[in-house]
Amino acid sequence: MMRTIAILFIAILSLSGCKEAPKPIAEANLESSEGRATLRLYTFDGGTVMVNALGFFAQDDTYKGQSKEFANAFYVVQHPDGNLMWDAGLPEALVGMDEPFTTPEGAFTVSRKDSLHHQLAKIGLTTDDFKYIALSHTHFDHVGHASALKSATWLVQEDEYKWVTGDEVRKQNPDSYNAIKDLSKIKIVNGDHDVFGDGTVVLKYMPGHTPGHQVLFLDLKKHGPVLLSGDLYHFSENREFKRIPIFNYDLEQTRRSMSLFEAFAEEKNAKVYLQHQKEDFLSMPEAPEYLK
Hints:
single chain, alpha/beta, Metallo-beta-lactamase, Chain A, eight-stranded mixed β-sheet, five-stranded mixed β-sheet, 8 helices, globular
């Protein structure tokens, strides 16, 4: 599976002729809890992944012969102390392609309609306006435009950093390393990390999908606490039945992270958004009129 991902990303990066496309499918504008710093959360379209071989996403034959369309969002969090980008979508080389790109073995078909620059312009930002970038993990569909945020500090779990920069990943899955190698401002964290020190934006350490996988907690005013899942769960059935993809790094870590995630979500009464679940992506609150 890791070789499949490597082949996919290398092939995508070799494509050219990108151009800007229409605005994102959905954007959200949410504000933080009373008594704390005001947050705004914007949700953008980082592409679409058509999984032609859904069997990869369970340890048994549950999904054998099935397919499913995944959303692929990325997020902008605006805080008075700086802007954070959470995840980075699919590679921008896909933007402007006449047809979606299918991997040689046929497992995935991927596309991306709009560029980072074009989408950020809709909220008056550029890539230089970010204090931080944080990735749930470093698989190809979450690091697509990460290298564009060279002025931002990359907040990364130590286990993830060692893994993605290690010899094994560089050799077997160089796409992951190549996507982050130009990020020179790096802050290594270990475990949960309160980004701005006020409890409104917290990285939650949830390893297993990759060694340093993390999810994002946001404390929002109008919509209450929110958890963005990364790839702890890819879609609702996998959350309901605790199904784990065959390509996860560590099964037992994943199971522990699932338990911790559910306990934390219950403790905070948090609304959970599964980042690849199309229905969750489309259910994010509508953008205000000035963003349309």
